[in-house]
Design brief:
Length: about 400
């Protein structure tokens, strides 16, 4: 049941995974009072009520831009206008950041404890997991407001949209399952039982498979979403405490950040086995792949930095200091910028991926966690699948086993 205590479960799960000597197989029960892995620092004016549901909270404006610390637009930034949607766990809101100017251009009030965001392939809808309300808020991107609220499982933690935009998959960390939402009707049409404490979700570019990271059972579940719709195809053992996933543009690799073991598992999608393990920073959480497939960016929540992995060599080639307790990470469609949520600093660090350094810091709401960026202007649903079917993105590292046929 939703409530003021249940909204802390995701943080408590992450805290348990980060405890020295603790196996990731332990599952934290709902209602836990364990401390989160980072100190929550919402101000008194933004802290949500601890006795009432979302309806009792003061909703921020959904139309007027917010006043935030100055941020600068740096030459060499994104070539087209894209928006970053930042979930703010303690503000019960989503901030909208223009990636060309690095300024907040809007704020949308959502449900209790928003933890992650995902954007539809055509950019028309944004889906937000309300971890404290057991719902998903559906934002109309054009109107900048919530147009539907969908009940899902217990403690929804992550969300992903299928490449064709028809289905939305939600990982429910407390009920150990995945809710499948029909995007046209905004209702759950299936529930899939998976491993312990599911967190990360990622689709192959062609939409044929969904990979689910089960943080409590140290494995990744493989779900058929094409002709084998919603069928469990197998599991892949990975490192300890897998929390996030990212897929190579050609669909050949899945990169899994393992929070407890401090590394990244590289999974071949042809064989669904781990083919490499890359040591990252302390507490790797969010992970993202550049559009050319050559580098992976990993937000290290206990190290306050981002590891940059060369995918041809499967090794870290740079480390970028960011804010305190980085969590989510997303890259712009042209690959020029990476946006990292700094949970304890209430801001977003903007990394220039050419120089691998922070070029801007954007102040947002309290407790930023997940972040998602809209696709490039003019992109249509299924664009990624059609492009990668021609042999992968230009410049991608050639592999002996190659992308999945």
């Amino acid at each position: 049941m939703p409530g003021p205590v249940s909204r802390t479960l995701v943080s408590a799960v992450l805290a348990a995974l980060l405890m020295p000597g603790r196996s990731g197989a332990a599952h934290v029960a709902p209602g836990t009072t364990a401390a989160p892995p980072f100190a929550a620092r919402p101000s008194a004016s933004t802290a949500p009520s601890t006795t009432a549901g979302p309806s009792a909270l003061t909703a921020p404006s959904t139309t007027a831009p917010r006043s935030v610390p100055a941020a600068r637009s740096v030459p060499g930034g994104p070539r087209s206008r894209t928006l970053a949607y930042v979930a703010e766990l303690h503000s019960d809101s989503v901030s909208i950041v223009d990636t060309r100017t690095n300024r907040v251009v809007g704020t949308v009030a959502v449900g209790d404890g928003p933890d992650s965001t995902a954007v539809a392939p055509d950019g028309s809808r944004v889906y937000v997991t309300d971890s404290g309300a057991d719902t998903v808020s559906v934002i109309d991107a054009r109107r900048g407001e919530v147009v539907a609220t969908v009940p899902v499982g217990d403690e929804p933690s992550r969300v992903a949209v299928s490449p064709d935009g028809h289905r939305v998959y939600v990982a429910n960390v407390a009920s150990d399952d995945v809710s499948v939402i029909d995007a046209r009707r905004n209702r759950v049409v299936a529930t899939l039982d998976v491993g312990d404490a599911p967190l990360g979700l990622a689709f192959l570019p062609d939409g044929s498979r969904l990979y689910v990271a089960s943080a409590g059972s140290d494995e990744v579940w493989v779900i058929g979403t094409g002709r084998n719709r919603n069928r469990i195809l197998g599991t892949v053992p990975v490192g300890r405490g897998p929390t996030a996933l990212a897929v190579a543009p050609d669909g050949s690799r899945v990169y899994v950040s393992n929070l407890t073991s401090g590394d990244v598992s590289v999974v071949s999608t042809r064989r669904d086995t781990v083919v490499a393990t890359v040591e990252a920073g302390a507490g790797p959480a969010g992970v993202a792949v550049l559009p050319d497939g050559r580098r992976v960016y990993v937000a290290n929540t206990a190290g306050d930095d981002v590891s940059v992995i060369d995918t041809c060599r499967d090794e870290v080639v740079a480390t970028v200091p960011v804010g305190e307790r980085p969590n989510g990470i997303a890259v712009t469609p042209d690959g020029s910028r990476a946006y990292v949520t700094d949970f304890a600093d209430d801001d977003v660090s903007v990394i220039d991926t050419r120089r691998n350094r922070v070029v801007a810091t954007v102040g947002v709401g309290a407790g930023p966690t997940g972040v998602a960026i809209t696709p490039a202007e003019g992109r249509k649903p299924g664009w990624g699948a059609r492009r990668t079917s021609l042999g992968g993105e230009a410049g991608a590292c050639p592999r002996q086993d190659g992308p999945r046929p």
